[in-house]
Specification:
The model has no long low-confidence stretch (mean pLDDT 90). This protein is mainly β and 190 residues long. 7% of the residues lie in helices and 34% in strands.
Length: 190
Amino acid sequence: MVLSDRHIREEIDRGRLIVSPLGEDSLQPASIDIHLEQKLLVFKTWHHPFYIDVRKSNQELTESLEIGDDSPFLLPSGEFVLASTVEYFALPDDIVGRLEGKSSLGRIGLLIHSTAGYIDPGFRGHLTLELSNVAKLPITLYPQMKIGQVSFLRLSSKVDRLYGSEGLGSKYQDQMEPTPTRFYEDFKEG
């Protein structure tokens, strides 16, 4: 069952669901609007080697930059960057979140996630967004702009193991800024 604005507010007021900060205009009929943080992770296209090895950290392939208050970041056509939400989330043991784009931004070609649209019960942190421009023109990104929305669904029961539990391999618990892939950790010998 998707939570309505009333039930989202009840969960927040009870302290079971944390979304901070939460402006009153962010609560929609069945979701919460999320906003773009200033920091981005961009790929260094000039870096050698010119490929991504999924078995290795790609930390050296990206660089951090910040969007200025007075000057937007121009996301070129066909480009991909990692971003973060202003909002911090903490989900209880019986609620999952679904990250979706804003239809107004989708209509100009801005996608906010490739596959990371699911927020597990027990997750804590800021969401990393996977921004892609599928339009033929660059798109401007401004800090604090509404970038997407999160809806919440109640599970059939509480989960036995929360995201972040030992042995699950949860890689992104407590992330505070755009976080590059940690998929390479799956290849480490135990």
